[in-house]
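pasting alpha-L-rhamnosidase for the record, 867 residues
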Amino acid sequence: MSQWLEESADASPQARESPVGQSVAVTRLRAEYQDDAFGIATATPRLSWRIEGAGTEWHSDRYELTLERSSGVDSVIVHSPEQLFVPWPFAPLESRERVRLRVRSGSGFDWSAPSAPLIIEAGLLEQNDWVRDLISPSTIGGLTDGAPLLFGEADLAATPVTARLYLTAHGIVEFTINGRRVGDDIFAPGWTAYEKRLRYRTYDITEHLQAGPNRLQALLGNGWYRGQLVWPENRSSYGDRLALLAQIEVTYADGSLETFGTDASWGAVSSSILFDDFYDGQRRDMRIADSPEGKAIDTVDVQRGAFHRLVAPSGPPVRVTETLPAVELITSPSGRTIVDFGQNLVGWVRLRVSGAAGDEVTVRHAEVLEHGELGVRPLRSALATSAYILSGRPDEVLQPTLTFNGFRYAEIVGVPELSLADVEALVLGTDLERTGWFESSDARLNRLHENVLWSTRGNFLAVPTDCPQRDERLGWTGDIQVFAPTATTLFDTAGFLSEWLEDLAAEQKSDGGVPFVVPDVLRDPDPAAAAWSDAATIVPEALHLAYGDVGVLERQYASMRAWVEKVRSMVGDDLLWTSGGPFGDWLDPTAPPEDAAQAQADPDVVATAYFARSSGILARAAALLGRHADAEDYADLALRVRAAFVSAYVSDTGVVHSDCQTVYALAITGDLFETDHQRDGAGRRLAELVSDAEYRVSTGFVGTPLILDALSKAGREDLAHRMLLTEACPSWLYAVSMGATTVWERWDSMLPDGSINPGTMTSFNHYAYGAVADWMHRCVAGLAPTSPGYRTIEVRPLVTGDLSSASARHLSPYGEIAVSWRLENGSTKLSLSVPYGVTAEVWMPGASAPTTVDHGHHEFGSTSSTP
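structre below
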């Protein structure tokens, strides 16, 4: 970016607002990925904003940043039209420093009004900022002891002017001060590669504290740190002792500072929670008070040496994002009481009950019913049950806090007279801003899109998981690799996925091998799986395209390069990757229930195609970052791998080895051909396969995100629409026709007779096949980015007549883009709204060239309803 800086002078004519500029608003000033830049992790945060209300005469050519800090006010003018991730032009922030920032935009001799201020407060940026240590109960709080409650005191000399809590744990923590919960986040501090990166969170606790003694308490749960993961009885993946680090920093009116927090003076007692586990659930005795009064007090041990691992978050935390009422009470054939919430979700059941002291209430969760009973077989070993021993108080509220479940149905035992008003579901998930909407004339497609949204919400919980209900819930790299473009369309995942990528890099092996799950609890010593490990390259590229963030490529470049070099070291002189790992085109619909990896697509074809793809991604990243030698090397590698692929797997007529939908999808979208004759032949053969299958899907995890794009690229948009709209299994709409409210792991997770697929891999909330929503946005509605951050877009709906209308909205980094089209009297009418900073190329059906438009609202008409 070419730019130069100058000091701002308010007396300059250019520093005055003008009538033209008064209509221009600078909005949503952000630091890094955060609207609320509290406890930020960097001393030099990059800044972004939107420009609204600009007319056609407005062309930003500079911006002014004004920073208020304790040392004074500093303003800088930067001559650049950029408004995304612009560099911090001031002296770096210091730990704990709180500043106030505004921006305004300039065009010619005009200036906009200043933006609303953004308050930025730095977290603890240096290791020596930490003066408190982790503490752990000395004798209680073992694996079978239930959740321990740690407690201490902060005796303040006066009422504080400001107070901050810096908090982390081995496990998950709920912190209270004087009996009042701190924060609204759930499962803090979240799941990271604990041995290398331990997240801490920052809280403003000024209003929680008072002069004199203050009671500090922390309830510790097993969470991901010590709870069961992967398989039965596999607990303590990271350690066998829970621990807490709390550092409280208080500033008084006279400017003096005082620090409190965890040390050897704290104590520990047992809590009311007798058992907690993410897979199995929670057991709580409501008769036991969560306080140290009247209990035997345990000492604590101090654990030192955690400071080098501590990192501040760049994404939002897990929160309760919605509350859903129960919609139906069901009595099962066996006489059980089952509550239906009408939606497969992730979260908690909350009950209001009255009963005698000592009575027990249990809540067991499942996603589906099978023959009228709770369908628990897909849970495998997970018990997914919360139990409560009642205290005898009237209208007692029961809900778990140290576990979560994926469910639509809950079987409740121990409440003889349950009413719908007594039960509700609390929806949990990482608190991501929604950014994508889609609607069409087909209600089934609209429901499919909603299903994709719900699967994203449920599985984006601390990390991008595969499923939220059974004994797994892991950050599978293959799942997020195929889904990343859809995720970035539907939600603002910039901070969330950037954090996850930092864990991927931290878990990566010294030879470049990328684990199958991140954080890595499988601990494979030599992980390398085509399409799974390729998340190291594909997810950063998806984030760069969606958000215009070159920084994510810079941070991940070493990881990306190490992965491609790992594959290069594994292949021979022929450049064919024939050891591509255990997954292949996972869950191909022809695979038997007991072997999800047994696919039609030759795994060597899949692996070599991914080698070419990742090499090309790395070449493009290197070029963007100015690593010219690398860019040349990896571009050449990608070409040579493509040539090797064609030589080994593509015939002169375009037939691809193993001749199934997935291999053609890979070859066509990856342009793995040498001649037009091969391209055309492959497109014709794919069309034949789809027609022969009666438009049913014949792809697994690898082929599914690409199949409709491959058909579109081959000029068969008609077949793509027919495949999308078919209800015959396997298809996207089969699950919709069966009443699904989320995306299924298998095309036939539930069989037509209402029985559950017997395969061990059977989840009813698994977002991978939901990657189709990206194609729905780009090709059905016609809204596709063509440069990073949606700086340029292509509006090109594939209107085939199968639908009479479609629309999409997307909150891009520049603002809202909205497109809608409808068929009307034999012509296509299209409406488009473009925010400032975005340029659109609009291709109407039948047009031989696009129309280019800038910001504003635009209307188009076409006399042809088909391309």
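The first helix runs from residue 19 to 22.
The first strand starts at residue 5 and ends at 7.
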